[in-house]
């Protein structure tokens, strides 16, 4: 049963997404390796091997999203992983353009991709959606002591508010699709050494570890949670 399943991971040509694609392939799923650059998608799919296939997909480009969705008849798992963090300042030092740019990928892109692939997901007996969010989006953790970062900073306001909006969408998709057997959850992958920020993060952990959390949510059983927010280690994250 599990081996007939197909997963799409957006932004899977590198970073956490590549690790998620690799782990899902190791679980026996056919993995569609989403990449906005066809060449890098092909190389990543070849590196993963097995039944991994590249899928050209720019989540901010409606034509790209429509073309990709038309080419996929059946989907069991959608991992909305593609994300950007181009502005690092607090809200007082963030422009509307920076906010809009960040939301285009992290919020509007997720909604566009999810809605475009819904017909394919509805053909699955066990549809799962994993939204790769961030612990820094937790409004509770931003103002209370927490295991991830010192509270009280409002840096990266564009990025963090975009992921908070993504968290809200996760709840609303969870509610909307619950009767159809969907499980829709958000993941806080923890601080990972990737290209996301562009500057080295000395305390960042291995992205492969974060991918395990995504795979757990991608393969949830029928009695699993929906509309919830989990850390990579499976513990609940407060909104
Ligand atoms: P990377 O920058 O390494 O990877 C981001 C991926 O998203 C790349 O494949 C990138 O493609 C892709 N992407 C960006 N924009 C688009 C787009 N418009 N269409 C399609 N793909 C796109 O970062 P991470 O691996 O760290 O990030 C993965 C996810 O994890 C993100 O959602 C991020 O917010 C989240 N996250 C990461 C944390 C960390 O510490 N690293 C912490 C918390 C959350 P390309 O190569 O073409 O740019």
Structural topology:
Layout: E1 6-9, H1 15-26, E2 30-35, H2 38-48, E3 53-56, H3 62-70, E4 77-80, H4 96-121, E5 128-132, H5 139-143, H6 157-177, E6 183-188, H7 207-218, E7 228-231
Parallel strand pairs: 1-2, 1-4, 2-3, 4-5, 5-6, 6-7
Helix pairs in contact: 1-7, 3-4, 4-6
The protein binds NADPH dihydro-nicotinamide-adenine-dinucleotide phosphate (NDP).
GO molecular function: oxidoreductase activity
Keywords: NADP, Oxidoreductase
Domain Ketoreductase: 5-210
Characterize the structure shown.
- The protein is of the alpha/beta class.
- The chain has a single domain, classed as 3-Layer(aba) Sandwich (Rossmann fold).
- The chain is built from seven helices and seven strands, in the order E-H-E-H-E-H-E-H-E-H-H-E-H-E.
- The protein has a seven-stranded parallel β-sheet, sandwiched between helices.
- It is globular and about 45 Å long.
- NADPH dihydro-nicotinamide-adenine-dinucleotide phosphate binds next to helix 1 and helix 4.
- This is SDR family oxidoreductase.
- InterPro entries: CBR1-like, KR_dom, NAD(P)-bd_dom_sf, SDR_fam.
- Belongs to the short-chain dehydrogenases/reductases (SDR) family.
- Keywords: NADP, Oxidoreductase.
């Amino acid at each position: 049963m599990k081996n007939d399943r197909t997963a799409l991971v957006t932004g899977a040509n590198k970073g956490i997404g590549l690790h998620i694609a690799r782990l899902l392939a190791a679980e026996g799923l056919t993995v569609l390796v989403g990449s906005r650059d066809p060449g890098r998608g092909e190389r990543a799919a070849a590196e993963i091997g097995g039944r991994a296939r590249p899928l050209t997909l720019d989540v901010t480009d409606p034509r790209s999203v429509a073309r990709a969705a038309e080419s996929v008849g059946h989907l069991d798992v959608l991992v909305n992983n593609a994300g950007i963090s181009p502005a690092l300042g607090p809200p007082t030092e963030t422009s509307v353009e920076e906010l809009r740019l960040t939301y285009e990928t992290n919020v509007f892109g997720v909604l566009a991709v999810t809605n475009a692939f819904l017909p394919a997901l509805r053909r699955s007996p066990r549809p799962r959606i994993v939204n790769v969010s961030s612990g820094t989006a937790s409004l509770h953790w931003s103002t209370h002591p927490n295991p991830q970062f010192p509270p009280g900073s409002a840096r990266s306001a564009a990025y963090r508010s975009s992921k908070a909006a993504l968290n809200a969408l996760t709840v609303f998709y969870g509610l909307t699709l619950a009767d159809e057997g969907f499980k829709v959850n958000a993941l806080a992958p923890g601080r990972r050494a990737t290209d996301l920020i562009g500057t080295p993060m000395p305390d960042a952990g291995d992205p492969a570890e974060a991918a395990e959390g995504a795979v757990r949510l991608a393969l949830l059983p029928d009695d699993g949670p929906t509309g919830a927010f989990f850390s990579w280690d499976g513990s609940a994250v407060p909104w």
